[in-house]
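> forwarded from #structure-qc
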């Protein structure tokens, strides 16, 4: 596959003031080919202001500010469109809270030699999650098992939010038809890439629960995901969308 010359790390943020500086610095340090786009939903804690200051001093950092908390899925769609417009070979999805270790980025890029989509996976061999309460671990692991059963996707970590996606995949996805608002976005994008026949591979990573700030996981996000996998299965069975 084509060698990756430049890659855009997309960091969605909502109230990540304590983390943003550190994550940006660590991501930039991994590889000179990596640039950063923060998609901030007008965080009330002033995350955007901090990013603005960083971006002013650094041409490798940019930001999209949205009017309010519009959800993780649409934040990534905005980032994907930005990456396509500016000619990036690939994007990296990474959380702001350092649950995803920026030092894994070079491995994601390496795995992308043979794959269109590299999933930073917690569940390739056992469970590699540090500091999650059992309840949260069961929710995440259960969501992967359930989504695999309903959709037939042969991967272990279907809700993973860390990974690398090549440009070809973004071009093939109908970005305006992505329906998930919340974290089911991660399942939907994997499903659509898989249905289109792209090579997806899982790269083992260790996920560590945040030490700063708060999780934005909610019941609504869980319900959306439970319904979404059935929507994906049926619309694909009926040939409504791939
Ligand atoms: N722009 C934007 N970012 C969000 C939204 N919800 C969550 N995030 C970000 O998505 C990432 C993952 O969220 P987090 O709350 O850590 O979820 P958890 O790790 O599943 O508990 C973090 O960087 C959040 O700041 C949202 O509605 N809009
Ligand atoms: Mg988190």
């Amino acid at each position: 596959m084509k060698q990756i010359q430049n890659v855009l790390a997309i960091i969605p943020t909502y109230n990540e003031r304590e983390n943003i500086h550190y994550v940006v610095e660590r991501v930039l340090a991994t590889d000179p080919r990596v640039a950063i786009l923060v998609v901030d939903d007008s965080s009330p804690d002033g995350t955007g202001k901090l990013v603005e200051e960083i971006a002013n001093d650094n041409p490798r950092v940019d930001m999209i500010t949205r009017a309010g908390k519009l959800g993780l899925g649409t934040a990534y769609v905005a980032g994907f469109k930005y990456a396509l417009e500016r000619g990036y070979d690939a994007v990296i999805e990474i959380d702001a809270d350092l649950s995803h270790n920026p030092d894994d980025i070079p491995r994601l890029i390496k795995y992308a030699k043979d794959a269109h989509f590299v999933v930073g996976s917690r569940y390739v061999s056992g469970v590699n999650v540090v500091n999650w309460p059992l309840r949260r671990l069961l929710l995440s692991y259960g969501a992967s098992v359930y989504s695999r059963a309903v959709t037939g996707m042969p991967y272990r970590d279907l809700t993973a939010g860390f990974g690398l996606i090549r440009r070809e995949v973004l071009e093939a996805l109908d970005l305006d038809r992505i329906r998930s608002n919340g974290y089911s976005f991660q399942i939907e994008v994997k499903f659509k890439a898989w249905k289109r026949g792209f090579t997806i591979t899982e790269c083992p990573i260790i996920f560590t629960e945040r030490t700063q700030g708060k999780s934005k996981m909610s019941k609504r996000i869980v319900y959306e995901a439970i319904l979404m996998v059935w929507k994906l299965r049926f619309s694909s069975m009926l040939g409504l969308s791939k």
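QC bot note: The first strand starts at residue 7 and ends at 13. Helices lie at 20-28, 47-57, 72-85, 105-111, 134-151, 167-172, 184-195, 219-237.
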